Amino acid sequence: AAAGLSYVGAYVINTYKSYDNFLQDKYALLPAVIIICVAVVMFIIGLIGCCATFRESRVGLGLFLAIILVIFIAEVSAFVLGFVYREKVKTDVQSTMRSVFEKYDGKNPESTVVDYLQEQLHCCGVKNYSDWTTTQWFNSTGNNSVPLSCCQQEAKNCTGHLDQPQEL
């Protein structure tokens, strides 16, 4: 389990590099760091449990049980806090995404990240393609279209025009 959590934490940190323009908050990597720390603690706790079982130590097994109970309480608390604050996180991420979409010009690093995000997640805009109609890029191009990264991968002749929403 500790190895699995270590992998997940490292994967999140590695993936963060692709989306760091959307997650401008300095605490965005905190969950990944916490996951890695939990993996280290789980390894140590597992070692304690194995040693206590091997030696048949009642004190060691009691300590192991107490640690497992504390971890269970922490997990339940984390679940409750995640449930309570889910709307705040959603609102914060959407507002940050909207600000990055406003900076889109097709050439700058934010534009590259937006294109990458839309291609990888098979999406267009923050909620849908109509989000592009309020951006500076949309108004400056004047061609009534969205970036080509909004096009579906199987759409061969997609131009990004809003009169063909089935291709977006």
Which descriptors would you attach to this protein?
mainly alpha, TSN36 protein, 168 residues, 0% strand, membrane
Give the overall shape, derived from the CA principal axes: elongated
The number of distinct β-strands equals 0
Helix % is 55-70%
Quote the distance from N terminus to C terminus.
Answer: 41 Å
Number of helices: 6
List unreliable stretches of 5+ residues.
none
Describe the main β-sheet briefly: none
SSE-based structural type: mainly alpha
What letter string, H or E per element, gives the SSE order? HHHHHH
Strand content: under 5%
Radius of gyration: 23 Å
Q: What's the overall average pLDDT, rounded?
A: 82
Sum this structure up briefly:
It holds the Pfam family Tetraspanin. By secondary structure, the protein is mainly alpha-helical. It is built from six helices and no strands.
What features would you describe in this structure?
This protein is mainly α and 168 residues long. Helices cover 64% and strands 0% of the residues. It contains 6 helices and no strands.
What's the SSE blueprint?
Blueprint lengths: L1 H18 L10 H26 L2 H27 L1 H17 L6 H13 L14 H6 L27
